UniProtKB/TrEMBL annotation:
<feature type="domain" description="SIS">
    <location>
        <begin position="41"/>
        <end position="180"/>
    </location>
</feature>
<keyword id="KW-0963">Cytoplasm</keyword>
<comment type="function">
    <text>Catalyzes the first step in hexosamine metabolism, converting fructose-6P into glucosamine-6P using glutamine as a nitrogen source.</text>
</comment>
<feature type="active site" description="For Fru-6P isomerization activity">
    <location>
        <position position="359"/>
    </location>
</feature>
<feature type="domain" description="SIS">
    <location>
        <begin position="213"/>
        <end position="354"/>
    </location>
</feature>
<keyword id="KW-0032">Aminotransferase</keyword>
<keyword id="KW-0315">Glutamine amidotransferase</keyword>
<keyword id="KW-0808">Transferase</keyword>
<comment type="subunit">
    <text>Homodimer.</text>
</comment>
<dbReference type="GO" id="GO:0004360">
    <property type="term" value="F:glutamine-fructose-6-phosphate transaminase (isomerizing) activity"/>
</dbReference>
<keyword id="KW-0677">Repeat</keyword>
<protein>
    <recommendedName>
        <fullName>Glutamine--fructose-6-phosphate aminotransferase [isomerizing]</fullName>
        <ecNumber>2.6.1.16</ecNumber>
    </recommendedName>
</protein>
Length: 364
């Protein structure tokens, strides 16, 4: 069926706004809202020793968010690697490893080759894919679908949050299967995940505030994104999104690495975007922002209203919904995407078809 933009100016804008639905639909694949339980999976998480995620581009960042969740909630060691490296570097994989390809299209050449290689090594394989009839869906033993629907914009948005929703849900399922999460915690985590669609809708209300910030951001030559915990991969995804559609150079860094290099770049012309949910490491991120502000760098701090003020000249705040730590990457993905989107609109680039990029890289 032909997909149309309807009331939206670009497919990307439409797809950003579809996320409450696409996330809800994807969560329902893995979790049961009524019982508050994670559905039992075809993979026996108690029997595996390690997860190896392979992916490219935005899916790689979704994979890194997945890693943090598999380790934190399931005590399951998880490695994530860019497929083009993994497939050629002769990695040492062990028998108890589950290989998981993460891909919107299910056709990315490097990811597919990595998956095929793992299968040939005798590993168990699974694929988190949005196109359910794709090559990866057929190649993997276990299909873990995302339900984002067709994504037209070259820069991935709703497919990313659907991948994150699937991986977070699977991490909870793995935690239950491995005895790391008891029944009460399971109910609480499942409930938290099902709050994501509503909180994503709330985050979409940040629209006007983010739009106002991009008037300045569009003039920047370089932008730094900072975050800790699962906000670190999201910072890298934010930088990628901005690069892809606005052609502004951007880098995503773990906030704790600021001192080890990127702080040398800070000046009044280099904005820093901080993803700062009110979690157990908020204060650490806030002190990094003071360091940036003290060096004259403009800061955009995305944090809930009730988060304390880091007190620094030049720190502008945008309020994000307060949310449980588990779902912060789903909720904070929205301001990150809107920031890239409005900056690109400001610059007048071809948002849905950025120069030199392809929706799916099926040849090396
Ligand atoms: C291309 C697209 C990206 C996407 C990446 C991986 O670079 O432009 O948006 O993240 O490929 O694609 P996949 O279909 O494997 O998720």
């Amino acid at each position: 069926a032909l997909v149309e933009k309807g009331e939206y100016r670009h497919f990307m804008e439409k797809e950003i706004h579809e996320q409450p639905d696409s996330v809800q639909h994807t969560l329902s694949e893995y979790l049961d809202l009524v019982s508050g339980k994670a559905k039992v999976q075809a993979v026996d998480f108690a029997a595996i020793e390690r997860i190896q995620i392979i992916a490219c581009g935005t899916a790689f960042y979704a994979g890194q968010i997945g890693k943090y969740a598999f380790e934190r909630y399931a005590g399951l060691p998880c490695d994530v690697e860019i497929a083009s490296e993994f497939r050629y570097r002769h990695p040492a994989v062990t028998k108890g490893t589950l290989a998981v390809a993460v891909s919107q299209s299910g056709e990315t050449a490097d990811t597919l080759a990595g998956l095929t290689w793992c299968k040939a090594q005798g590993l168990k394989t699974a694929a988190v894919v949005n196109v359910h009839s794709s090559s990866m869906a057929r190649e993997a033993e276990v299909l873990w679908p995302t339900h984002a629907g067709p994504e037209i914009g070259v820069a991935s948005t709703k497919a990313f949050t659907a991948q994150v929703a699937a991986l977070l849900s699977l991490a909870v399922a793995a935690g239950v299967a491995r005895g790391r999460i008891d029944a009460a915690q399971e109910t609480e985590l499942v409930k938290a995940l099902f709050e994501a669609p509503r909180l994503i809708s709330e985050a979409l209300q940040m629209d006007a505030g983010i739009h106002a910030l991009t008037l300045d951001l569009a003039k920047a030559r370089d932008v730094l994104f900072l975050g800790r915990g699962s906000m670190f991969p999201l910072a890298m995804e934010g930088a990628l999104k901005l690069k892809e559609i606005s052609y502004i150079h951007a880098e995503g860094y773990a906030a704790g690495e600021l001192k080890h290099g990127p702080i040398a770049l800070i000046d009044e012309a280099t904005p820093t975007v901080a993803l700062a949910p009110l979690d157990d490491i908020f204060e650490k991120t806030a002190s990094n922002l003071q360091e940036v502000a003290a060096r004259g760098g403009p800061v955009i701090m995305i944090a809930p209203e009730k988060a304390p003020d880091p007190h620094g000249a030049g720190i502008r705040r945008v309020s994000a919904p307060d949310c449980p730590a588990l779902i912060a990457p789903l909720v904070y993905a929205v301001p990150v995407q809107l920031l890239a989107y409005y900056t690109a609109v400001q610059k007048g680039t071809d948002v849905d078809q950025p120069r030199n990029l392809a929706k799916s890289v099926t040849v090396e």
